[in-house]
Amino acid sequence: MKRRLSFILSLVLLLSLLAGCGxxxxxxxxxxxxxLEPLSGEYAQQGNYERLxxxxxxxxxxxxxxxxESYVIELVEKDTDSTIVGTVKQANALVEEGIALLLGPYGSxxxxxxxxxxxxxxxxGIGITCDYPSVTVNNSNYYRICYLESYQGKLLADYAYEYGxxxxxxxxxxxxxxxxxxxxxFLEEFQRLGGKVITTVTTILYNTYTTNLNSFADYLFGAVNxxxxxxxxxxxxxxxxxxxxxxxxxxxxxxxxxxxxxxxSTIGDATAxxxxxxxxxxxxxxxxxxxxxxxxxxxxxxLESDPRRIEANGGTTDINPATALAYDxxxxxxxxxxxxxxxxxxxxxxxxxxxSLNGITGDFSFDLNGDAxxxxxxxxxxxxxxxxxRYSKLQASR
Length: 398
Prior knowledge:
The protein is α/β, with parallel strands linked by helices. It has two domains: about 190 residues, Rossmann fold; about 150 residues, Response regulator (Rossmann fold, 3-Layer(aba) Sandwich). The chain contains 14 helices and 17 strands. The strands form three sheets. Strands 7, 8, 9, 10, 11, 12, 16 and 17 form an eight-stranded mixed beta sheet that branches. Strands 2-3-1-4-5-6 form a six-stranded mixed beta sheet, sandwiched between helices. A three-stranded antiparallel beta sheet has the order 13-14-15, with helices on one face. Strand 7, helix 7 and strand 8 form a beta-alpha-beta unit. Helix 6 packs across helix 7 and helix 13 crosses helix 14. The chain is elongated and about 70 Å long. The termini are far apart.
């Protein structure tokens, strides 16, 4: 009897030990990645484009391996309310939460404000669409994914010259520094190549119009009068569509060339049914290769799985260039974390400079300033019959 009781007690003890082993919790490592964007206020749409790109990227790659251990990436998001005050407040909040790296925010001024807050704690940031040179030049702890204006303007001039243009007419909106800077970079490169830039004014080498302009007729007359081969006009989308329509109605024979902002259906619709030769720069083209097509399909499926995502994406399943850049920015962050093989913010930030990415927005690495070194600029042309924008080529420097 005693032996039987002893056996039963031993069996109960063994079973309880086994049960205890089954309840042991597996330790999950996490690493916090910050996302700072204007998700409300004036710039909410731009902020949401970037946010959606990062969130989708996290569904594709949710973990990073550090020292042989898998770390789940915890995305900590904060809303700047589209204000500088909100940007400062939320940047400090992210620092307090212990992020290892920051993505964003939208806006070059905002990045410049955030940089010293991060730097004090040894944290680096990756800007997505901030194109002011000061973001990286003045901040050693900031990197940038997007193109600089100087790069885009130069390669658009290379494209125009390569395709036979020898006389160019540049047109900018007078109250936009961006337009004027792009024209400056374009004409500098176009003249270096041997091309001629014409103008109807004496103070600058490109032409400007005011925001309340009703008709481009005088500018079209000037371009035709001086036998322009191409009109370069990195102006706002709606004005660009108006310009194309007036060019078609006037039956001008020069080409029209726009920046990456023209890569949209509004420009395509304005060209459809005309004879116009229209091209623009492009950050992301889903018809460029299989990887881009797969990203586009996956992203649209993800959007359509939640109506709130469609709403945040402007009510459509169109892929904004900022979304594609944000996707690549997240992948750079993951690669930097693994390259650093550390959870320390300073080591992760330093490792970003070593990352090379074959991204959906192109192949790139980083220069000493922290700017993306890209292999070229994508060009899209518009089918004048259908208005469909199609990937044309990768324009490399001449």
